[in-house]
Amino acid sequence: MLMKSEIIPIACDHGAYQMKEFLLNKLIEHGYTMKDMGTFNTDSVDYPDFIHPLAKAVNEGEYERGIIMCGSGNGAQITANKYPNVRAGLCWSVEQSQLTRRHNNANIISLPGRFVEFDMAWEILKTFLTTDFEGGRHQVRVEKISKLL
Ligand code: RB5
């Protein structure tokens, strides 16, 4: 659901800094209130240093949703999914983005800064922010995610 009163955190490493800046400007232009959690330039950094603070804040309920990025999107997603209340989906297409909301109730989107065009990333992100969870059988499945054997 589109809830423009909420604050949405965004974080990346150097591999996605330019994509982060592009998306941040788009989001602000479209009326979203953003919390920029870095990185703030193209200097090489370690992605967990920027992803952990965002994922921890979503995990603790400080933010409902978040946006993360790194070069591949994998390191950021893997880091965020260490938190029990986080469901971070790696999305490289609009269809992936729809599905991770509809079926996984993802509360964080991970984008691959080096593998999708910025305009496509914006389409993927808009889809993530405006697609609802279907619930039903998918609620049952989502609840099973944390039931480790
Ligand atoms: C940085 O070079 C790169 O490893 C990082 O952005 C990301 O792709 C890690 O998964």
Question: What would you give as the CATH superfamily?
Answer: Sugar-phosphate isomerase, RpiB/LacA/LacB
N-C termini distance: 33 Å
- Cα-based radius of gyration, to the nearest Å: 14 Å
Specify the helix fraction band: 40-55%
CATH class: Alpha Beta
Heteromolecules bound? D-ribose
Largest sheet: 5 strands, parallel
Overall number of domains:
1
User: Structural class, from secondary structure content?
Assistant: alpha/beta
H/E element order: EHEHEHEHEHH
How would you describe this protein?
The longest helix has 13 residues, at 17-29. Helices cover 42% and strands 15% of the residues. By secondary structure, the chain is of the alpha/beta class. The protein has a five-stranded parallel β-sheet with strand order 2-1-3-5-4, with helices on both faces. Helix 4 (94-102) links the parallel strand 4 and strand 5. The mean pLDDT is 96. The protein has a single domain (7-145), classed as 3-Layer(aba) Sandwich (Ribose 5-phosphate Isomerase B, Chain: A), CATH 3.40.1400.
State the gist of this model.
This protein is of the alpha/beta class and 149 residues long.
Task: Set down the secondary structure blueprint.
Layout: E1 7-12, H1 17-29, E2 33-36, H2 47-59, E3 66-70, H3 74-80, E4 88-90, H4 94-102, E5 108-112, H5 118-130, H6 137-144
Helix pairs in contact: 1-5, 2-3, 4-5
Bound molecules: D-ribose.
D-ribose binds at residues 13, 15, 47, 70-72, 74-75.
